[in-house]
Amino acid sequence: MKASARIVVEADGTGGSRLAVCSGEAPLLPRRTGPRATRGGPVEVHLVGGAAGPLSGDDLLVELEVGPGAWLRVRTVAATIVLGGRSGPSRTTVRACVATGGRLDWLPEPLVATAVCDHHAHATVDLADSARLTWREELVCGRAGEEPGDLVQATEVRVQRRALSVQEQRVGPSAPGWAGPAGLGGHRAVGSVLIVGAPVSPCTQRRDGARGALLPLADGAAGLACATAVDAYRLREILTALTPSDGYDTATGGSSA
Fold it and tell me: In whole angstroms, what is the distance from residue 158 CA to residue 162 CA?
């Protein structure tokens, strides 16, 4: 299956944002959620799975565009379960661009690599000067009692066409040592939150079944939190603890007031 979704948000001229384009094909069905954006608040969209996927052979594309001074927050309604099959590798591509003064919050639920999957998830994000970004990625290696298939998760974030953060995570039989001391260290979940446009101070967190660190990038104007954990719940918990709230909880979407 080949499918795409496109979301475009623009400033509405009154200090708020409006949804200019919201289109998609199953299994990528974007739906506006929450109240209408208030002055200075985000437009929130959830991606709803209109069919199972990604499945073997699927090629899925999500395009996000945030105009000058606009704010878009994207979530998913549930974890994405990557399934295998006989039709070859599957692929998910996300392309995002954020204009000057715009803001994008990408906050999906975890990606779950099931047994015998063969999947490549690739994201590119282009930021203009003074654009802001919160970009969360969480990967769970297999369902309960299951070893993961092959999965590659690669993300590149550029500011004014210069690379700010380039990450790649590989798990599964084709990635020797992925679960060892130089990889996940026996943990089953791994994730990160990249923050651009907010001050960040370095810190570390170690809890029962989870550990992580937040490191500043680009002279403190950006930061990357990375963590591993025994399960998705503890992973979200430690990423929340590592991530500055900036007026809302970036990991759960709840108010920090």
Answer: 5
The 3-state secondary structure of 207-246, one letter per residue:
ECCEEEEEEEECCCCEEEEEEEECCHHHHHHHHHHHCCCC
Query: Sheet containing 59-66: which strands, arranged edge to edge?
Result: 17-24, 2-11, 59-66, 90-98, 118-127, 150-159, 162-171
Report the residue count for the chain: 257
Q: What is the pLDDT of residue 250?
A: 44
Give me the DSSP letters along 137-163: EEEEESSTT----EEEEEEEEEETTEE
pLDDT band of residue 257 (cuts 50, 70, 90) is very low
CA angle, 71 as apex, 64 and 224 as ends, to 5°?
75
Give CA–CA dist 17/25, Å, rounded: 24
pTM: 0.92
Q: Are 31 and 46 in contact (CB under 8 A)?
A: yes
State how far the Cα of 71 lies from the Cα of 170, in Å rounded to an integer: 31
